[in-house]
Fold this sequence. Notes:
Radius of gyration: 22 Å
Helix content: 25-40%
Amino acid sequence: MAKGKSDLLCFSSIELTDPVINGNKVNARVILNTTKGDQSVFDMKLAYAEQVNDEVLPILRLAFVMPLLNYGLFSKKIQLNFSISRMDFELLHTLNQIFSSDIFVNKILRRKANYILPEYLPDPEQITISDARPKAVIKPKHITNDSYLATTFNPNSCGVLSSGGKESLLSYGLLHELGCRTYPFYVNESGGHWRTALPAYRFHTSNEKKTQRVWTNIDRFYLFMLDHLSFIRSDHRKIRADTYPIRLCIFPFYVFLFLPQFIKNQIGNLLIGSEFDDIRETQEFLGIRHYYGVYDQHQDFDMVMNNWYNSRLPGLFQWSALRTISGLIVERILANRFPQLAKFQRSCHSCHFEHGNIYPCGSCSKCNGVLLFLLANNIDPKLMNFKDKNITQFLDNANPDLLRLDEDEKLHSFYLLRKTEYCSQPRDHVEKIHLNKATMDIELVPEHLRKQLFQILKVYTTGYCRLENKEWISVDDEEIVI
């Protein structure tokens, strides 16, 4: 930052050793060299269900780099003690730029929780666009020529990054119904999030033989990094919040974590459960372009990854089956069409065990959002292990200001609940299929699946709408070509 601004630089370098494959385990060492001359080390680990092939080492190298890109604002250099290809370097450079801007805007300037020591907070009046650019230069050992890592992929096979949330469960249900060979992929991050995923994982392991899981200590790594960021409060573990302190982009790590399985099983489609995000305003804050903290769920991330796949894994394609529909509709389809999956949804980061079963906390903003969607759809929340007291408490204390959801989606749900004191007029587009090429291009859905998929979505929606002059305008079905 310029003179007179707070200094967020913590490290002279973040160094990553070459990953070592040992049977089904992969390890790499992260070395932090602080600007004060101190050094700290973290051993990042992966464990697969079966032996890892040495041929996927270039992909695993990128997997281990992905979490480091959350800290490009705070280090002078990210040193990679191995070689990468030109396209690999271009991808890392691109993501480093995007991650840094998104984190600067959404975790430092527009922060939702009080993790940062006051003396480090930037003065908004002194902010310039350059402040959001990464300080870290990515330095690999060598940059090599590009070559294909694999070329054989089945366009009718799909891998779904799965978490126990409504989007991944519905994505699996839809693709399975459409006749795809569908693989649920789960990550055990060695933290509390695994309780969220566990009910769905147990169901899939019992009913879907293609289910796979990778264990990693990535959540412990993120805590390690918070301990070594000098501008973060030392008591950060005691702060209760349903948002992460610094990191935003977690899906890229999971994507690369599972790419070896996509290669081995020749899976041609990679799906992240990205639903509709109503981004109509200019994505800028103080002149800095950003993604409101959801870049890795945005269509732009799919496009960047598809560009990389074309050079390294031609035949693999990343997309979302749900980007045209709101969370309200996702919950509607999941609970009504796939109730056997819906009962394992846990969209809560504070799940707990009771008599061997996993229950949501019922009171966090995540739980309140799910309760709102379920009740607005006339679905009994007890389907997902919510208790009567959770439902009563929500209805007695419902307040849109306490929910972190898209504004129209939230207000329309309150309208359906007949909470007219919060919303007296419907936001009709919330129940429609949204068309906008820049953020939800239906042509990115593979052609052989597109018509069947939208036939299902149309059953649970009230038609189509298109974005025109920042307004969602209804479109006659006759105008739509799927």
